[in-house]
Amino acid sequence: MIRYKKYQMTGENHPLKGLWYARPLIEDTFDTEKLAKHMSNHNTPYSAGLIKGVLTDMIACTKELILDGKNVKLDDLAIFGVGIRGKPADTSKDWSVTTNVVGLRLKCRATGTLAINQLKLEAQLKE
């Protein structure tokens, strides 16, 4: 169940000022250790410590692969990769990394059973 709270857009110059929207209420954030404990309680013979070790290694390997220019797909979760934020140049010759690359970002696209169409079917909202 995804809980939400209604809020009204504010800001004197905002074009949507006064309109109402919903925001999810996030009640908790699970770090790697808490996730490992949660997973170990799901009828698994593996301890929270073992699961945490595997997750920690997965995180390190995911970072390594992304920094090597690869995408990492975790089935039914997301595809992780890198994106480049930049500004254009008039010609290829005028373009340079130092001038035109503003920054990098981590991209995450939902996939499989977490993809947006499936999420819309399965999620339930409650105020």
Walkthrough of the structure:
It is a single chain. The chain is of the alpha+beta class. It has four helices and six strands, in the order ββααββαβαβ. The strands form two sheets. It has a three-stranded mixed beta sheet, with no helix packed on it. The chain has a three-stranded antiparallel beta sheet with strand order 3-4-5. Helix 1 crosses helix 2.
- Residue ranges: pLDDT <50 for 5 or more in a row? none
Amino-to-carboxy terminus distance: 10 Å
Question: Radius of gyration over alpha carbons?
Answer: 21 Å
Q: Tell me the helix content.
A: 25-40%
Number of strands: 6
Can you summarize the main beta sheet?
Answer: 3 strands, mixed
Could you give the order of the helices and strands? Answer: EEHHEEHEHE
From the spread of the alpha carbons, the general shape counts as flat
Task: Quote the beta fraction.
Answer: 25-35%
Structural class: alpha+beta
What's the total helix number?
4
The averaged pLDDT comes out at 94
Strand order of the largest sheet: 2-1-6
Which descriptors would you attach to this protein?
single chain; alpha+beta; three-stranded mixed β-sheet; 4 helices
Q: Summarize this, please?
A:
It is built from four helices and six strands, in the order ββααββαβαβ.
Annotate the secondary structure layout:
Blueprint: E1 2-8, E2 20-24, H1 32-40, H2 48-67, E3 72-74, E4 78-86, H3 97-100, E5 101-110, H4 116-122, E6 125-126
Parallel strand pairs: 1-6
Antiparallel strand pairs: 1-2, 3-4, 4-5
